[in-house]
Design goal:
heterodimer, A: about 120 residues, mainly beta, six-stranded mixed sheet, four-stranded antiparallel sheet, about 50% strand, B: about 110 residues, seven-stranded mixed sheet
Amino acid sequence: AQTVTQSQPEMSVQEAETVTLSCTYDTSESNYYLFWYKQPPSRQMILVIRQEAYKQQNATENRFSVNFQKAAKSFSLKISDSQLGDTAMYFCAFMKSMGDYKLSFGAGTTVTVRA
Amino acid sequence: EAQVTQNPRYLITVTGKKLTVTCSQNMNHEYMSWYRQDPGLGLRQIYYSMNVEVTDKGDVPEGYKVSRKEKRNFPLILESPSPNQTSLYFCASRRVSSYNEQFFGPGTRLTVL
């Protein structure tokens, strides 16, 4: 079974600053997918960014980027130029490349952006 | 609009009173799944379905039932709810291929007294 660990329950950042969320995972799979989801107060689950394990290049989506370290089984999310609308809970998730398409989630990190 | 819908969005019930949370998607997705979200635990998969009449247990299936009689619908049934099933529930769907996005419903907040 895959486990995903987010060691930071809460983080606070000043508007326009940068914040990095950590995520580590445990798997014996060689190929897989990693995701970061955002859950604002509306509770909707929103896909922020995804990474395929066989791709060495780190994924980037506008102000969101990841640092994927396959050997270390680490997948951190960097939010640059933080905005008030980034205030949310962020979940790291893992999915095997083949099988039941189950997403295994971490416990989440609550990010608060201060004005 | 492509979406996953869930009903009801909020439900307060009592122990032992059977309930059903409906889930429907309009994207012709083969795969559907139910998750529950609890503080400090993230989201955990309850049941999933790869296609019509094909369902299987996830990580926390105890106390739940599902059915997949139509491609678009995947109801979650709690035949005898207990307080430990108080949680936030999400339905999700996706196409059956390796890299497609999983779409989530808006969530159902269930309280069992």
